[in-house]
């Protein structure tokens, strides 16, 4: 018995979409989105991931929420981990850095200059903690720069909210 062509095509489309929904692999586009949200910048932007996650990777599906954090003191690599038993970890390079390791500033006018006194706020859902600090480089509103709380403190990256205020978002 022959079936009409539209019926066969609809069966093939339904089968392929059902297979995509039950894929044993983690969605790599989701990882790119979570890294962009963590960094506050998109792929290829200053302060964002240098490249998207390699599409050839076949990472096991992660049932838990992914864990993202900085790898190393220079904060130029994001560590993405699946906390499931037998999970995986992935390192994503952060772009927008010049040869000295300073964030490249976009063409927008700087809202903060190097050496400016700042308020550094660490903010998350339902809380905010702030401390005085210093800008280690210049940047525009919305840009990411290195800041420190004292001369001996390890620099951290923060987003410029307005002149005199930078924010380190915590999810």
Task: Explain this structure.
- By secondary structure, the chain is an alpha+beta fold.
- It has 2 domains: 25-104, no CATH class; 117-169, SH3 type barrels, CATH 2.30.30.
- It has helices at residues 5-21, 28-39; strands spanning 67-70, 77-81, 89-93, 117-124, 127-135, 144-148, 156-162, 165-169.
Helices, strands, pairings?
Layout (H helix, E strand, L loop, with lengths): L4 H17 L6 H12 L27 E4 L6 E5 L7 E5 L23 E8 L2 E9 L8 E5 L7 E7 L2 E5 L2
Parallel strand pairs: 4-8
Antiparallel strand pairs: 1-2, 2-3, 4-5, 5-6, 6-7, 7-8
InterPro entries: SAF_FlgA
Protein name: Flagella basal body P-ring formation protein FlgA
Keywords: Cell projection, Cilium, Flagellum, Signal
Strand content: 25-35%
- Helix and strand pattern: HHEEEEEEEE
Radius of gyration: 21 Å
What separation lies between the terminal Cα atoms? 58 Å
Shape: elongated
Q: What percent of the residues sit in helical stretches (DSSP H or I)?
A: 10-25%
Record field, number of beta strands: 8
Q: What structural class should be given to the helix and strand makeup?
A: alpha+beta
Strand line-up across the major sheet: 4-5-6-7-8
Tell me about the biggest sheet?
5 strands, mixed, barrel
Number of distinct helices: 2
Give a quick precis of the structure.
Helices cover 17% and strands 28% of the residues. It has 171 residues and is an alpha+beta fold.
List keywords for this structure.
alpha+beta, single chain, 171 residues, 17% helix, SH3 type barrels, cilium, signal
